[in-house]
Design brief:
alpha+beta, binds heme C
């Protein structure tokens, strides 16, 4: 893609966040209901936002480096419910197995994420016939299979600005029976408030795998679309997202000698190549990734709807212990130089959800650890179809009744509530 460095300049101009949180005392401060679904947060440059959104919606081709194996051709092909950036019907496939009782993501055969499609036959140069192949289904050796539904990205730029200490503080205050775990990971890309190599509290994805939206974007660009990128951080080339996935991690896609991984040999979008290996101490995120991050960082939370339970549902939500994990905290961060408040109804911690957990983890994780899932943020849930990580239901009551492990007591409280109480709770959820 063409370079659009203006987006990066705007991103770097983002002020450092000061995050705090307070108990919900006044619902009217909880969210700014003036924004429509898909709007930008206040203070966002409209032209830059529109360009970044277009990039998020752009369909990539083989000439752009799509594949060799991939799940879709644009971010918005999956993230589209209600508006660009939303949730989606696409369900990713994960797999793995247990080796000596601990999780094994079968990286040697291309796990734990399966790519569903391949570009098929391609001709990188005249007379050279190549084949991408496709990931075998089921993957050789896999015994654990999980679906992961596409989550919405509304409001995530604000979530990114919640301080690590705020999230860790929520965990510390939780009763032991439901206490969650703050997942930490190393930052890959120097972007926004983050510097490569820092450790931060991860908060994005069903398992809380990234703290930074730029990191998530580069990861998705590679693993969902097969577009490799490199980046510059203080003069060093960052190649963390520069290795193509190949069908079941075959050593080569070649049907004859001379086949590259895909139509674009080397890194599909290489900043290092354009900048003489990041000479001059350069820090730069590849332009598409920078645009994806800019779009998501400035995408407003879904507006709140009308609560037809007249407040009774929130009381019931708290009585049943839902707020233990789906905390009612109103978070306040500084974004675009303005104080912005929001209520995502998540602690951004992972919890042992017992049989609801999807059984997928990192290599070496115990079975218990593979049952950990991030508390799903409930904001914007009225714009959603499938619920729970594998979209097994669209019925909110069923989703609640599927809570197990640390969520079992809340599910039991819901089950033993009167039908009027349940109805109030469901009306409240339908207002989010
Ligand atoms: C094939 C479908 C698909 C495509 C294409 C796709 N995503 Fe996603 N996205 C998903 C799924 C599924 C999840 C949940 C993944 C998980 O947690 O396991 C997700 C989660 C996310 C999240 C985390 C949201 C949260 O709830 O914390 C971000 C951010 C994101 N995607 C950004 C992107 C960007 C940027 C692109 C384009 C480069 C992209 N996605 C392309 C399917 C897709
Ligand atoms: C121990 C923490 C915990 C408690 C308590 C809890 N939840 Fe959850 N909730 C989660 C987690 C984790 C998920 C995501 C689970 C998954 O999909 O694997 C979730 C998912 C959901 C979903 C589906 C959201 C989506 O994006 O698909 C709904 C709805 C929900 N919870 C409502 C409730 C209600 C209502 C209560 C109280 C009766 C409650 N939860 C209590 C942790 C909790």
């Amino acid at each position: 893609m063409t370079r659009m460095t203006f987006a990066l300049a705007v991103m770097l101009a983002l002020p450092l966040a000061a995050a705090s949180c307070s108990d919900l005392t006044d619902e009217s401060t909880a969210s700014d209901n003036s924004a429509a679904l898909g709007d930008a947060i206040p203070g966002t440059n409209a032209t830059t936002f529109a360009a970044a959104r277009n990039n998020f919606g752009l369909t990539e081709t083989q000439g752009d480096g799509l594949g060799p194996i991939f799940n879709e051709r644009s971010c918005s092909a999956c993230h589209s419910n209600g508006s660009i950036g939303g949730a989606g019907q696409n369900i990713e496939r994960r797999y793995g197995t247990l080796t000596n009782g601990v999780f094994n993501g079968l990286a040697a055969t291309g796990g734990s994420l399966r790519q569903l499609f391949g570009i098929g036959g391609f001709n990188p140069s005249p007379g050279v016939n190549c084949q991408s192949g496709t990931d075998a289904n089921p993957a050789p050796g896999a015994t654990i299979f999980a679906g992961r539904m596409t989550t919405p990205t509304f409001g995530l730029g604000l979530v990114e600005l919640i301080s690590d200490g705020t999230i860790q503080g929520i965990a510390a205050a939780q009763p032991a029976a439901i206490r969650g775990v703050a997942v930490t990971n190393q930052i890959h890309l120097t972007s926004g408030i983050f510097t490569r190599g820092q450790t931060h509290v991860s908060r994005f994805g069903w398992k809380a795998v990234h703290a930074s939206l730029a990191d998530f974007a580069a990861d998705a660009y590679l693993n969902e679309m097969g577009i490799t990128t490199d980046h510059c951080a203080a003069g060093s080339v960052v190649r963390d997202f520069a290795t193509e996935n190949r069908a079941n991690r075959a050593p080569t896609n070649a049907v004859i000698n001379g086949c590259p991984d895909d139509m674009v040999p080397g890194t599909d979008d290489s900043v290092a190549e354009e900048t003489n290996n990041c000479a001059g101490g350069l820090t730069e995120v590849q332009d598409d990734v920078a645009n994806f991050a800019f779009f998501m960082r400035n995408l407003a939370p879904a507006p709140r709807g009308i609560d037809n339970s007249n407040g009774r549902g929130l009381t019931e939500f708290n009585r049943e212990g839902c707020n233990g994990c789906h905390v009612t905290t109103t978070f306040t961060v500084t974004a675009n130089g303005r104080s912005q408040s929001f209520q995502p109804f998540s602690d951004f911690l992972v919890h042992d959800m017992g049989s609801l957990g999807d059984g997928i983890g990192n290599d070496g994780d115990s079975v218990a650890v593979t049952h950990r899932m991030r508390t799903a943020p409930l904001w914007g849930i009225r714009f959603r179809n499938g619920l729970l990580h594998d979209a097994r239901t669209s019925d909110k009551a069923t989703a609640i009744q599927n809570h197990a492990g640390q969520g079992a007591a809340a599910a039991a409280a819901f089950n033993s509530a009167s039908s009027a109480q349940r109805n109030d709770l469901l009306l409240f959820l339908s207002s989010l």
